[in-house]
Write a structure and sequence with these properties.
The chain is globular and about 85 Å long. The protein is built from 16 helices and 25 strands. It folds into three domains: 331 residues, Alkaline Phosphatase, subunit A (3-Layer(aba) Sandwich); 95 residues; 110 residues, Nuclear Transport Factor 2, Chain: A (Roll), CATH 3.10.450.10. The strands form six sheets. It has a seven-stranded mixed beta sheet, with helices on both faces. Strands 5, 6, 7, 9 and 10 form a five-stranded antiparallel beta sheet that branches. It has a five-stranded antiparallel beta sheet with strand order 21-22-23-24-25, with helices on one face. Helices cover 28% and strands 23% of the residues.
Length: 625
């Protein structure tokens, strides 16, 4: 009579055991899903496409195929200051004399006469650019000194007491002062789900060239469980039309119409992503290692008031101008005895360390250009430095975005079909802390899904808005131009849906046509006469351009339901030898032509266009004088 209860007791025990096994399995599966290393698609992949969705198929070309192998080679190392090392060194707290270097400068510590001089940005007057600097008095010191905690930048100059008229050493150092916090201890800065955000850019590096040139950096990113966005497609020619979308959410025309009425206007009335973070109590920072050709200062006025709490650019302006050296294609690679990009990397590390030690939520946007802007193979020289920089970051409370804006835009490599694609497909990695990936597993899983979706910097902007206010973020409409990468993006998304002009779209298949094909000749003549020379008519100081030779023509495979054909052409003009690329649409019913997007210049113009200052006209102008 007791058998039935014993069976029930046995079944209950068995049920609890099976439940425990199921829960453990779910936990282990979740941990594996969150922590697994995502596969990296490289030249070893056998797939014909990087990914293939109903909306977009991007070709998967080898990173070392035979047609480009001759263009991949080792560059000579950067030797700063002709091999002469520094006389002083900074640990961001103090600056001290390197005694072993005294003999190099033919001086002893007894007859060394040095002073330090703090300097800072000054707001420009209405007729000035955003490059103004104020210096304080030069203070004498012996051997070393502590950096004032309220100062960011300092200059050192030294003379020999034997000849005080001759400066024997000059150097510049950047540090991080502690600035007052606005909106301290609000709902954002005290919310653990609000991550610090660091963005670091490496200019002009395609996704494939990062794998080709910087394998150590890629490998370490994989160790960090970084999510690589395989379908990241650029939306404009150069840095500005791409990055301005990420920073503001608007294209250049929209931004100018909204807050910059004239070409001489500052950018103060424009709202950028750092303003959103700052209004939520974050400390903000912005810096570029080539401020002389910076995003807001190359043929532009920059800002009147300082845009962020920490603004590195004025340090780079003065240091590069006075002790810059080792010029590659017009860009100084060094500040004194230090590589220019490494100086900025050290600054970013110090910024993150200082903010973390003082428990301050922070946002930082930094861009390195000097090493990679002009040469396909220079990135390899920075592989160790970028990898070591990554390994030194404390990322437990930080979202890191490592990215580029476009691939190599000019040169022999760019003239290949692979170069065309790589220009349009820069790299983008997103790193999130492990605890955040677990707590926000749905968002993280969407991020992993989106690695095989077509995305743009409109989406990155929306992602930054998401990170700036995780608690109150409202999901975007699935048809929006920008969608947070923490929301699933449709696999049916096309270039049109994402706001990518056909000229930049990598989703369409194309076929090569002969340069003497009648349609290619018509497209070239239309581009040259109706656009390039029509623009140059506004500039009396520029020559009218003539066709020299058609170099390439491609026809894009179109949907049978459309009444147009798209063509991309590449051609050289004279005088000046400019090489241009354009995508043009021909409407079959009217035989009319329409330029799609902008015209790209595929070789450097150098000083050919120094007589004009409009950034677009510079691409085409060959000055008469």
């Amino acid at each position: 009579m007791f058998s039935k209860p014993r069976n029930l007791k046995h079944l209950a025990k068995l049920y609890r055991y099976l439940l425990l096994i199921t829960l453990v399995s779910i936990i282990l599966l979740s941990y594996y899903t969150i922590n697994q290393k995502l596969p990296i698609i490289t030249s070893k992949s056998k797939n014909a496409h990087i990914f293939n969705t109903p909306g977009c198929s991007i070709p998967n070309l080898s990173i070392t195929n035979a047609k480009i192998r001759k263009l991949i080679y080792d560059m000579p190392p950067i030797v700063c200051n002709e091999g002469v090392g520094p006389l002083f060194q900074s640990d961001f707290i103090s600056i001290h004399l390197l005694h072993d270097a005294l003999s190099t400068y033919n001086v002893t510590s007894d007859n060394l006469d040095c002073c330090y001089q703090y300097f800072k940005r000054r707001c420009p007057n209405n007729d000035e650019k955003d490059t103004q600097i104020d210096f304080e008095e030069c203070v004498q010191f012996t051997n070393d000194f502590l950096i004032d905690k309220n100062k960011d930048f300092v200059k050192i100059e030294c003379r020999s007491r034997d000849d005080t008229t001759q400066m024997i050493y000059e150097d510049y150092f950047a540090s991080i002062s502690l600035k007052p916090i606005e909106n301290q201890d609000n709902d954002y800065t005290t919310n653990e789900d609000q991550l610090n955000v660091l963005i670091l850019g490496i200019d002009a590096v395609s996704r494939m060239n990062l794998h080709r040139q910087m394998p150590k950096t890629v490998e370490y990113l994989q160790e960090l469980q970084a999510v690589e966005m395989l379908g990241y497609n650029k939306i404009g020619d150069n840095s500005f039309p791409n990055l301005i979308v990420m920073l503001s959410g608007h294209n250049e025309t929209e931004l100018n119409n909204a807050c910059r009425p004239t070409d001489d206007s500052f950018y103060d009335d424009c709202e950028f992503i750092w303003d959103k973070f700052k209004s939520n109590g974050y400390i903000t920072a912005f810096g570029e290692d080539t401020a002389n050709i910076g995003l807001f200062t190359y043929e532009r006025r920059g800002f009147h008031e300082q845009p962020t709490d920490y603004y590195y650019n004025h340090f780079d302006f003065i240091a590069e101008n006075n002790v810059g050296n080792t010029k590659f294609s017009g860009i100084n690679q060094c500040i004194g005895s230090r590589a220019r990009y490494e100086v900025l990397l050290d600054y970013v590390s110090n910024y993150a360390i200082t903010m973390n030690e003082n428990k301050r939520k922070h946002f930082g946007y930094f861009w390195t250009t000097s090493l990679t802007h002009d040469y396909l193979n220079m990135a390899k020289l920075g592989d160790d430095s970028y990898r070591n920089w990554l390994s030194g970051l404390e990322l437990n409370d930080t979202a890191l975005i490592l990215m580029s804006d476009h691939g190599m835009r000019f040169g022999e490599f760019r003239n290949t079909y692979q170069g065309v694609l790589e220009d349009r497909l820069p790299f983008l990695f997103v790193v999130l802390p492990e605890w955040y990936r677990k707590k926000h597993s749905e968002a993280y899983n969407n991020l992993k899904i989106n690695r095989e979706r077509l995305i743009t910097l409109y989406d990155v902007h929306q992602t930054l808005l998401h990170l700036s206010d995780v608690k109150n973020y409202q999901k975007t409409n699935k048809n929006s131009l920008g969608i947070s990468l923490f929301e699933e993006i449709s696999n049916k998304r096309t270039c049109d849906d994402a706001g990518i002009d056909p000229h930049w779209c990598t989703c369409k298949e194309s076929n090569a046509l002969s340069p003497d094909h009648p349609e290619i000749i018509k497209v070239v003549n239309f581009t040259l006469n109706e656009h390039i020379n029509a623009l140059l008519k506004q500039y009396d100081e520029c020559y009218n351009l003539l066709l020299n030779v058609i170099l390439d023509g491609r026809h894009f495979v179109s949907n049978s339901n459309v009444n147009y054909e798209d063509y991309t052409v590449t051609f050289r003009t004279i005088p000046g030898g400019g090489i241009f690329e354009a995508t043009v649409r021909k409407y079959n019913d009217s035989n009319e032509y329409n330029l799609l997007g902008t015209i790209s210049r595929l070789n450097l113009y150098g000083n050919q266009s120094k007589c004009v200052h409009d950034v677009y006209a510079k691409l085409f102008c060959y000055c008469k004088k």
